[in-house]
Specification:
Elements lengths: L5 E7 L12 E6 L5 H9 L17 E6 L3 E5 L10 H17 L3 E9 L6 H12 L4 E6 L6 H18 L6 E3 L8 H19 L1
Parallel strand pairs: 2-4, 2-5, 5-6, 6-7
Antiparallel strand pairs: 1-3, 3-4
Amino acid sequence: MLIRTAVFIKSASKIEECPETELPEFAMIGRSNVWKSSLINTIANHSKLSKVSITPGKTKLIGYFLINDSWYLVDLPGYGYAQTGKKNREHRLGITHDYFIERFPLKRVFVLIDGNIAPQSIDLDFIHSLDQKNIPFDIVMTKIDKATQKSFSLHSRLLNQELAKLVTHMPKIFPVSNVTKRGKEKLLEYIQELIAQWTTLEA
């Protein structure tokens, strides 16, 4: 998929503020400090589309980015940031839950996993909850440039082992480098395939 245009549209603090659209949406979520904003910029081929903060847990709203005037890349608030107050955590969980359950244009959730460390229980618990609610999801492994090949292979193997215990259907796993852009095209090709499937069903 060739990315021709990528534009920030709006932020939403609740589901009612999301754009009125029938275009397919692909959401990204992960625990704090998993380089979600950097991945969005990598996918969109735009270094400043999503603001990268040095402080974890900054995403509090649902962010909408229109790609190629044909689909939305959606930035969801991260989970598991301990320094976020209880009220903020509950708000983030609330709008994320509403988005998953009520947002008809949502076609896939991409859960971001830190490829530089072993699978974390908070990520596995979140993945299990998506699977239990029949919310379609796949996984993107980030920070792969920080890991040695040996450690990344180990983390990938552990992730597959843990997923086999948790989910009814194994998700696809996409390692993506924000430095070399390795894996970006495979992820975009997959999104393009999903859009084509959705278009065929809608026809």
